[in-house]
Specification:
The chain is an alpha/beta fold. It folds into 2 domains: 147 residues, HUPs (Rossmann fold); 135 residues, Argininosuccinate synthetase, chain A, domain 2 (Alpha-Beta Complex), CATH 3.90.1260.10. 38% of the residues lie in helices and 19% in strands. The strands form 3 sheets. A 5-stranded parallel β-sheet has the order 3-2-1-4-5, sandwiched between helices. The chain is elongated, with a radius of gyration of 24 Å. The termini are far apart. The relative contact order is 0.13.
Length: 395
């Protein structure tokens, strides 16, 4: 007897991916394997398993990838100070390459002929997922239901769910809900009133941060210690990568830090408005830039600064596994072994202030910079320096 074809679906356990699951079963006559990557999002494992089993799924794979996500994806990105269009810390963008890689790994394990995802036909995530699929499983078929099925509206989805006895939560029966994506690094919210950029973001959408107005009236002081460019301690205590970010999320969130409201340019050419919360990540990028300022030389810092925009754009567009991103990462990490020390921060009502930087690095010289000491810096050479450069004004 010929074995049944298999498809591995990126599955959240919610309404949309449950509809996709049923649709795949109906239209491809295949066994669907449900795959969930736990990268720190709000997750109900019992619900995922229960909803999948109701639809006849036998193989349900839930992988805890939180430490891998932070250590191998978020930290390298933060070392590059990647910020898209000046404000976005790429919380959704950086998660998709890991999910795609691990989903293909599961597909190969089960000898599946195809993988599927629930990204919409207008968004960036379909590109990010599929570029990852192509990189790790170029011979594996990709099924993107939102680009090919005949379900065109929320009403169509609800009717399909009812027809196939898929439970519909009360909050899904009316108008389209906010679109929310979350992981350990961030939460993003889009849709509904946010679609019109003239509307202010309602306070109810914020999940990780209090408003600066409601933050404590006293500042919070914290220290973050770095080794080889990565954070390893908070307030003198060592943490795993995932626990460290979790701790910083709590500290920043209660002080109203990490909110961003932006209109961004999607890879597909559409402008979209979203609200992002990246509390711990906001602290880390400030602290990392600060510790680099006293540990790296000017040339290395400026090389990194010059590539930051392109590096961020590659991540945003889904090119994490591209040759160009790998090449830029080498520049980012050229002297990361020198980035060691501790930064002290003051957190107060949405603001971050650098209080101190401590390092054993010799890149910053007290003797050279001091107004009281002139022996180690030959000022007579400055005139020669200026004369050399003034010639370039007309060259």
């Amino acid at each position: 007897m010929k074995s049944k074809k298999r498809i591995v679906l990126a599955y959240s356990g919610g309404l949309d991916t449950s509809i996709i699951l049923k649709w795949l079963q109906e239209n491809y006559k295949a066994e669907v394997i449900c795959y969930t990557a736990d990268i720190g999002q709000e997750i109900d494992k019992k619900k995922i398993i229960s909803n999948a089993k109701k639809l006849g799924v036998k193989n349900i794979v839930i992988k805890d990838l939180k430490n891998t996500f932070i250590k191998d994806y978020v930290f390298p990105m933060l070392r590059g100070h990647a910020v898209y269009e000046g404000v976005y810390l790429l919380g959704t963008s950086i998660a998709r390459p890991l999910i795609a890689k691990d989903q293909i790994k599961v597909a190969k394990k089960y000898k599946a002929y195809a993988v599927s995802h629930g990204s919409t036909g207008k968004g960036n995530d379909q590109v990010r997922f599929e570029l990852g699929y192509h990189y790790f499983g170029p011979k594996i078929k990709i099924i993107a239901p939102w680009r090919i099925w005949k379900l065109k509206s929320r009403t169509d989805l609800i009717n399909y769910a009812k027809k196939n006895k898929i439970s519909v939560p009360k909050d899904k029966k009316g108008a389209p809900p906010f679109s929310v994506d979350d992981n350990l690094f961030h939460t993003s919210t889009e849709g509904k009133v946010l679609e019109n950029p003239k509307n202010s973001a309602p306070e109810l959408i914020f999940q990780r941060t209090v408003s600066p107005e409601k933050a404590p009236n006293k500042p919070t002081f914290i220290s973050i210690s770095f080794r080889n460019g990565d954070p390893i301690e908070v307030n003198g205590k060592k943490f795993t990568p995932a626990k460290l970010l979790e701790k910083l999320n709590q500290l920043a969130g209660k002080n109203g830090i990490g909110r961003v409201d932006l209109v961004e340019n999607r890879f597909l050419g559409i402008k979209s408005r979203g609200v992002y919360e990246t509390p711990g990540g906001t602290l880390l990028i400030h602290a990392h830039r600060s510790i680099e300022s006293v540990t790296l030389d000017k040339e290395t810092m400026h090389k990194k600064e010059n590539i930051m925009s392109r590096y961020a754009e590659l991540i945003y567009n889904g090119y994490w596994y591209s040759k160009e991103r790998f090449k830029l990462q080498k520049i980012v990490d050229l002297k990361k072994n020198k980035v060691n020390g501790t930064v002290k921060l003051k957190l107060y009502k949405g603001n971050i202030t650098i209080i101190s930087r401590q390092t054993k690095s010799s890149a910053y010289s007290l003797k050279k910079v001091s107004f009281e000491e002139n022996k180690t810096f030959n000022k007579s050479n400055v005139e020669k320096f200026i004369n050399f450069h003034k010639k370039k004004l007309r060259s």
